[in-house]
Specification:
By secondary structure, this protein is of the alpha+beta class. The chain has 9 helices and 22 strands. The strands form 6 sheets. It has a 5-stranded antiparallel β-sheet with strand order 12-13-11-15-14, covered by helices on one side. A 5-stranded antiparallel β-sheet has the order 19-20-16-22-21, with no helix packed on it. The N and C termini lie far apart (about 70 Å).
Length: about 450
């Protein structure tokens, strides 16, 4: 009479720190401890039948308090290292885990009968992970098999190819305390200032040795120079999202914040890419510096994304400055605008209409001509030079884009509802909207005209 439970790790890894160890010690629990298994099963049972009281749950758990045996697959130790995000400190965290192959489950077996545990299958289905949340798992009842990991007396020695491990398990000699301890949270156990949960014990197991985590060798690595990112994407959050008509204001605030953070982090220095000016304060030419583009990508006329696009590429110092931009203050009683960094990358890494490909593009924010139209001649000889359409086509050519096959005005006064200039600038004379059609698909972004580096003149696929 043997109850066998199969655990299949869906992401091929088991992440768990043994009781009494810190995550940065690099200790790994393998196999999953009996205490961890029974505790997860108890949680699944409580979810499957919420009306079950503690006394009934305690009776139900009795057959699982004995130390199980295991059938373990071949497994390897591994680890990853990452820094916790934070403004004040960025602590290095070591995530040590066990890697198992595809289709190689762990089988845990108890001297019990499934009939003693009504509702077990439903409880197992409600266990989403085991250990840390990266350890996605599917748990089900299965057929017993020959174990290769069993409790042993450490004094009797172990066989070749095996190693001794100590696992936390329920104590069947103290069943009432064991069930009580299983139902406590980790924080509650720590609050009791106990070295281990109530009703637990340590059991020595002999298990197949893990394949060790290999030390990296310098000769195995080659420096790879990844291309510099050209894009930083933010999600915009606020109690009241700013209207799209304030796109130039939000873009100007984002530029100021990025420049301020760059100076703060680099001894008052300035970035030509972020500022758009050289070391003498002269505007850069060629439109290779940063565009700050505030867009509405769900169609509610509210700004929900901010994109910084720098065709020349972003340095590590510029990335660091941009990553610190988190809150913009529009002022005049308007709520703060929170920016959530979605990531850095090249244009192909982001799914956004800005970087789409289309034959027809339509104004998202108004196009502002860079020069005033001029009228030459009189009477029938009268002609207009530098009309808005002429300047639109010229701007396309300057950006290296093809000449459009058709340009259509988008009539209406809505373009004049937009804020058309940055603070302390003279307002422009006119604003226009267009629909542009090309003979072939053109890849975005398409951003043209005056203040195009501040979110005006943005076109999106129609």
């Amino acid at each position: 009479m043997t109850l066998a439970i199969k655990l299949t790790f869906l992401a091929y890894g088991f992440h768990a720190t043994p009781w009494g160890h810190h995550v940065n010690e690099g200790a790994v629990e393998w196999p999953p401890s009996p205490w961890r298994l029974v505790r997860a099963i108890a949680a699944g049972r409580a979810r499957s039948e919420p009306s079950l009281d503690h006394a009934a749950l305690a009776d139900w758990l009795q057959p699982l308090l004995q130390a199980p045996t295991y059938r373990l697959p071949r497994a390897a130790a591994a680890h990853s290292r990452h820094f916790m995000p934070g403004k004040e400190s960025r602590d290095l965290v070591l995530d040590t885990f066990v890697v198992v192959g595809r289709g190689h489950p762990v089988v845990a077996m108890w001297p019990a009968d499934e009939e003693e545990l009504p509702g077990l299958a439903e409880a197992l289905e409600l266990i989403p992970y085991l250990g840390r949340s990266q350890s996605w798992v599917a748990v089900e009842v299965t057929e017993p098999c020959e174990p290769n990991t069993v409790p042993v007396d450490a004094a009797s020695g172990i066989g070749e190819g095996l190693e001794l491990v100590r696992l936390l398990a329920p104590d069947p000699a103290n069943a009432s305390d064991a069930v009580h301890g299983l139902l406590l949270t980790t924080s509650e156990v720590r609050g009791l200032r106990l070295p281990a949960p109530p009703g637990s014990r340590w059991v020595e197991y002999a298990r197949p040795a893990l394949i060790p985590d290999p030390l990296p060798r310098a000769r195995r690595y080659r420096p790879v120079l990844a291309p510099s990112p050209t894009v930083a994407r933010f999600l915009v959050d606020s109690p009241a999202l700013p209207p799209l008509t304030d796109a130039v204001l939000i873009a100007d605030l984002a530029r100021r914040a990025a420049m301020a953070w760059f100076g703060r982090l680099h001894g008052g220095g300035a970035s030509p890419t972020l500022s758009g000016k050289d070391e003498r304060g002269r505007p850069l030419q060629g439109h290779r510096h940063a565009f700050y583009l505030a867009t509405d990508e769900d169609g509610d006329r509210r700004i929900d994304h901010l994109t910084i696009f720098a065709p020349a590429g972003l340095s590590r110092a510029e990335e660091e400055a941009i990553a610190n931009v988190r809150v913009l203050q529009p002022g005049r009683g308007r709520p703060p605008v929170n920016l959530v960094l979605a990531g850095f990358g090249r244009t192909e890494a982001f799914r956004t209409p800005l970087f789409g490909a289309a034959t027809v593009w339509r104004s998202h924010t108004p196009f502002i001509p860079v020069r005033h139209p001029k009228i030459r001649g009189a009477g029938t000889e009268k002609r207009v030079l530098d009309s808005p359409i002429d300047q639109l086509i010229l701007e396309l050519q300057r950006r290296g884009l093809p000449r459009p096959s058709r340009v259509r005005y988008l009539r209406g006064a809505r373009w004049l509802e937009f804020r058309l200039h940055r603070p302390r600038q003279e307002p422009p004379g006119a604003a226009h909207g267009f629909e542009i059609e090309f003979d072939r698909e053109v890849q975005g972004p398409i951003v043209l005209g005056r203040s195009s580096h501040f979110g005006l003149g943005v076109f999106l696929p129609a």
